[in-house]
Hints:
The chain is α+β, with helices and mostly antiparallel strands. It contains 17 helices and 20 strands. A hairpin with an 8-residue loop joins strand 9 and strand 10. This is histidine kinase.
Amino acid sequence: MKVVARFGSISTRILIILTLAFLLIILLVYWVIETQAKPRILEMTSETVVETGNEAINSIMANINHVDGLAKATSTMAGGLPKQDILYKETFGNLMQQMDQRIVGGGVWFDPNMYAEGRERQSFVWARDSSGDMQPLARYNQVRQTPNPYYRDWWYIPAMYARHDHCVWSRAYVDPVSNQPMMTCAKALYDSRNQAFDGVVSFNLLLDNLGEAMKKWQDKLGGYVFLVDLDNRFLTFPDQSIVMHATEGSRQGEVITARQLAESNPSFAPIADSLDNINQMLIDEAVAKDENRYTLAARSILSTTNLNKISEQESKLLSALLLLNIDQTFNLVDSHLVDTIAVPNDFVLQQPATAFVFRMPFTYWKMVIVKPDNDMMIVANALSNKLIQAMLLGFIPILLLTAWVFRRYFTRPLKHMAQAVADMGVLIEQKKYQQLSAHKLPHSNVSEIQIISEQTNQLIDRVVENEGALAEINVHLEKQVAARTQDLQQAMDELKASQVHLVRSEKMATLGQMVAGVAHEVNTPLGYVRSNIELVGDNLTRFDELIQHTDQLLQALKAPTINKEQVEQLIDQTLQCCEEMKEDKVSEDLADLIKDGLYGVDQIAELVVSLRDFSRIDESKVKDVDINDCITTSLTMARNNLRALEVNTNLSELPLIQCNPSQINQVLLNLFNNAAQAMPIDHKGVLQINSSVDKAQQLVIVSVKDNGAGIPESTLAKIFEPFFTTKKAGDGTGLGLAITAQIIEQHGGSIEVSSIVGEGTTFIIKLPIQSSAHENKPSQALFES
Length: 785
């Protein structure tokens, strides 16, 4: 009760409402942060990543452009020199000696017969030795040492087909000396005199500094960053061992592609799919620009390279790159982002992440920045947490201040008012109205409470003022109530007497019908018993005649003197009488007449027994009864009224039930008589009586169904009402079915009726097998006898 009272306080409810409102505001703020702020912050974070990625691409492209410019200048220089060995060795040798340490080799490679007629191979090549010094190499000009000519190699052929002034970058491979990843920049060499293709200028660039550069950008961005080349081979990776694998042809290892990494690490598949799609877009763009040139270049690159060192896919990419780089430009302002990928569970970070893919001009290298989603949302989460904390800290003082204000200006005045009203209630209950004036409500500064106080005080004044008048009115009303109660009791007694008279009239009417039927049933057998007795009397005179002849014969035989003629005559008369009785079958007639008389006497006895069973005068109390016996007895008593009906019974074996057999007989006799009276004169009436047991509900069920005129729906609802009848005045009291319903109710059962006009009516009686209804429910006055 204390908890209920505490939560019933208006201040508590106001505080609860404020708390709920505040929680709703927090939820609204949280929803705005989740649906509006966080996506915007994520977008801003993504923009920062894109800007940083573009910066990294521009930085890498500056180094690539340096090598590209170097190759372009060397190509121009080599194309203008006279074709003399000393000039190329000195000029190109001096150039190579001045190269940055990242360039580990290079050379000028002439196409067959382009340097000197009849000379298939002529190249001027330099490479760093184990100490890092540039040294000339001559083995590429020796057929025995290099059975596969350089002009068929996988880096030479694409440069030959290039129609632009930029390097054609090879795929990434591992330098056999430094074991560092390396790429080759190949630039076509043209004769300055006739602009004919002479060969290729190449520079081998170490990629070790790319890893350091990627590490710098990775520290700046978070997550990890890596580079792939045109064929999606890894140029860099946070753990380089993951993207390397040794082969028979390359003991130091070869760089794998993004697709190969995805096959061993399925969580990398979204990034690999994006990189493959970007390459496919490159191919589609080239096909759309000039499909014939693209196809010719791809087939030429694939067919002219030696040892199948280039794949069909790589030849397609190189062909597309050569075709598209003719119109390629480089702008520091343009964004190089080509795709953003959601990675559900990155295999390096082991958490959800977002990958940003950037593409470099000319080389079509791709840089991928993989950033954890948590890092991207850390600002939004921090902002959300700080905002909610600030709101919570600000709400507590507001809540306390509100609680104090409500307690000071609302709760206390209302408590005083409630206590005063409670005291008034006690005085009113004790009828001490004059003392109410001492409990008037005090003045309040709150206008609403003051209005209630004023109205309550006015009510107190009226109660005190009218208290005396109310007392007199109460006394007068009590006297009137007592008088009315006495009148009502007298009327009730008269009504009960009238009801008893009506019930007895109904019973007498039923008894009159029953007695008339019984008289008719007794009169019939009594008539033929009388007739048979008269016939027996007539036949007995024949025996008197025989006895007379026999007495005469005996007297003649006992005479002192026997007259033989007289004796013989008497014997003949006696024998003749016997023969006549035999011929008339007097003895057989007497036996039949006596048998028929006994049958009539049995019928009369049966009616007497049925009448006794029906009345049950000696068994009017509740006892165990077989309802089938009540049905049979009632049918016998109603036989005279049912003679025009075809009566069919289907009586199941029933358990004994506790009931008043006399009352049950009265119910059944009423239903049977009503069924007989419901039959039209020109209609063949059928009465079907069934009995059964509902074991589940422990009920005995009796069904009385006729095929009479039926009862209209408007009448059906009133048939159990006392004094309601459809018969003519004087033919019935309207209590038969009312008594029937009441008897069944007193037995703890129920009676139901259903009827269809023109088809007949069915009454269903349900009586409990074991019932204490008669002990617990006294009979109502309407049915007292």
